[in-house]
Design the sequence.
């Protein structure tokens, strides 16, 4: 039971870190894709969507080649910084981030695109600077899309299995723990942990959706 609690705690912690990183990097990228035209924009948008189409076991193998002990980035990161992506939470976050970040970028992009650019132009003509317009006009109006993306990213991160099990088998996340229990003890033991993970994930998903709708209501109060 201790292993199960540790696996669940690892999943929750890694999913939280993944969501924070996805929000910090993905929301600005989504704004650029929604508001600015530049060469290669379609290519970047397609690259963002690749994890949604590629089987996650293949993603895990690709990440292992990049972040593994002899990987393109894994080996120098270990030698120069002492940063390991195998057997650590850093590897779990990398696996989760690759497959879940597109949800943040795509949902935030839709949120930004839904904001009428004329409202931003009016704010600028009234003397508000670009950062003020972004903080007080664009972000509040696009908050629902951003929070939807953050919520989906967190939920998707908790449930990730394929990429994580190949890049980082140990320490086990909750989905990997369910798989391991199924292989060792059969359906009954695995089902008990699976139900627990389902309950926790569902509760967190409902809570995040509630917070998102509350923030939107507060920010858009009349």
Sequence:
């Amino acid at each position: 039971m201790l292993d199960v609690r540790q696996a669940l705690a690892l999943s929750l912690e890694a999913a939280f870190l993944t969501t924070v990183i996805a929000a910090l990097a993905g929301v600005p990228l989504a704004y650029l894709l929604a508001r600015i035209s530049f060469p290669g924009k379609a290519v970047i948008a397609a690259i963002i969507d690749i994890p949604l189409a590629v089987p996650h076991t293949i993603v895990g193998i690709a990440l292992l080649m990049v972040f593994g002990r002899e990987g393109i980035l894994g080996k120098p990161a270990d030698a120069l910084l002492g940063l390991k992506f195998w057997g650590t939470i850093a590897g779990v976050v990398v696996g989760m981030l690759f497959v879940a970040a597109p949800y943040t970028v795509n949902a935030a992009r839709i949120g930004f695109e839904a904001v009428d650019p004329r409202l931003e132009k009016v704010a600028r003509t009234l003397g508000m600077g670009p950062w003020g317009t972004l903080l007080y006009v664009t972000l509040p109006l696009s908050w629902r899309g951003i929070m939807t993306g953050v919520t989906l990213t967190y939920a998707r991160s908790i449930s990730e299995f394929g990429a994580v099990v190949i890049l980082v088998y140990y320490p086990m996340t909750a989905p990997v723990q369910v798989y391991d229990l199924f292989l060792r003890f059969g359906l009954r033991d695995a089902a008990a942990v699976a139900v627990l993970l389902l309950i926790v994930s569902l509760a967190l998903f409902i809570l995040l959706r509630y917070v998102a709708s509350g923030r939107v209501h507060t920010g858009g109060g009349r």
